[in-house]
């Protein structure tokens, strides 16, 4: 219940940041658009140079603006990078090691994959079949050689969500992937058979997408988290 | 795919922030613990005063540290406040007004509520029945008088998740509530009958929790989003 007050306090402390956000809104700027220079902002907002600098730094940390040194300041992507940074650090900090944080991330990822299955299957089927095939082939080939395939795995899941018409879900899945990737090394490595199992689960997910079979997709998604869930259970608490 | 590089660049730019995070980890500090003073940090990390200040500001924006003016700097709560701030602003900025952002938030909330129903019912049943009853009574009473009950509504959902043993899910639901609350005013107001309907859905959710009936809980959760989904559909694009 304390969130709104705390955030309120933060906004009052950094009114220059609030003013810059207001300016972005009223001038209808979009991600990538240039902001006025520091000097212009001082003038327009009637605040000191150091206030503007502090505000820009705050907004840059939140990815609301993007400072490109030597080029100026632009409206940012408003990605979930700040969320990732906080979650990864919270994971590293948690008293029982980072595995508790990874368990929570896996649980939330599973929840999203399960509940949004219909949107994912529908969208992926129409837009990304070719690319998903290429990725599954890559995962199978790498698993057969005993090589990791994190990058292909991530691209596979990102693609699945990119056609859902829900940017928030897509970005959350990406953010959780980043947390997952950062924390997973503490888990120990997957065995060759687990790697092949995981690659096969992706093939099953794709097959379900091709058939437009939402229930089969849900089943293969659940299966696909089994190896990591087993590793989490086996890890020392 | 561009996230890791961008974040990498950000971390390289702010190595003092990285060093402070490292210090929190190695000294096993917990949220609420005091950090060394600015002067001590300069000394320990061998960086300039302005670098320390900039780093503290960055970490404060991410809620990794908490600056209490006149009292010092402490390890922060690592809440999802920064996520909320970015999402609310992104919502306000989106080209088709903020309603698209609210639709996405409702979809993700529904996904979490649906997929985590088992954990929620199990936990709430054991720990929060009394408080949930009080909140449902409050919602019913207010709806009958035509008054809003956002605060009770939020507390209801937060309580449901607080016993799930998944802090991330709990915080995400809280964060989405904040976004929801910030963006909802653009939607127009609920009718008295919609308010009574929403209050009744919470009563149904509680009844399902009491019976330990996960399927009935899922059904009433889905119902409970109907009024807002109708309002989103009716709103001009």
TrEMBL record, chains A, B:
It comes from the Bacteria. CDD domains: WHTH_GntR. Residues 10-78 form the HTH gntR-type domain. Pfam families: FCD, GntR. Keywords: DNA-binding, Transcription, Transcription regulation. SUPFAM superfamilies: GntR ligand-binding domain-like, Winged helix' DNA-binding domain. This is FadR/GntR family transcriptional regulator. It comes from Demequina muriae. The lineage of its organism: Bacteria, Bacillati, Actinomycetota, Actinomycetes, Micrococcales.
């Amino acid at each position: 219940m304390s969130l709104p007050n705390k955030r309120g306090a933060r906004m009052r402390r950094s009114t220059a940041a609030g003013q810059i956000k207001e300016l972005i809104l009223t001038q209808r700027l979009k991600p990538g658009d240039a902001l006025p220079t520091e000097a212009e902002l001082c003038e327009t907002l009637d605040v000191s140079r150091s206030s503007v600098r502090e505000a820009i730094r705050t907004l840059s940390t939140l990815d609301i603006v993007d400072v490109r040194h030597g080029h100026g300041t632009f409206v940012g992507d408003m990605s979930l990078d700040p969320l990732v940074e906080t979650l990864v650090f919270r994971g590293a900090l948690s008293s029982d090691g980072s595995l508790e944080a990874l368990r929570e991330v896996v649980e939330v990822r599973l929840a999203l994959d399960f509940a949004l299955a219909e949107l994912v299957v529908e969208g992926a089927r129409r837009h990304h079949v070719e690319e998903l095939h290429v990725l599954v082939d890559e995962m199978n080939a790498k698993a057969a050689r005993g090589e990791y395939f994190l990058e292909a795995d991530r691209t596979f899941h990102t693609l699945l969500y990119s056609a859902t018409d829900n940017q928030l879900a897509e970005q959350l899945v990406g953010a959780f992937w980043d947390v997952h990737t950062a924390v997973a090394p503490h888990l120990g490595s997957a065995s060759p058979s687990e790697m092949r199992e995981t690659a096969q689960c992706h093939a099953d997910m794709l097959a379900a997408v091709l058939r437009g079979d939402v229930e089969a997709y849900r089943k293969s998604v659940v299966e696909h988290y089994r190896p990591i869930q087993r590793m989490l259970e086996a890890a020392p608490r």
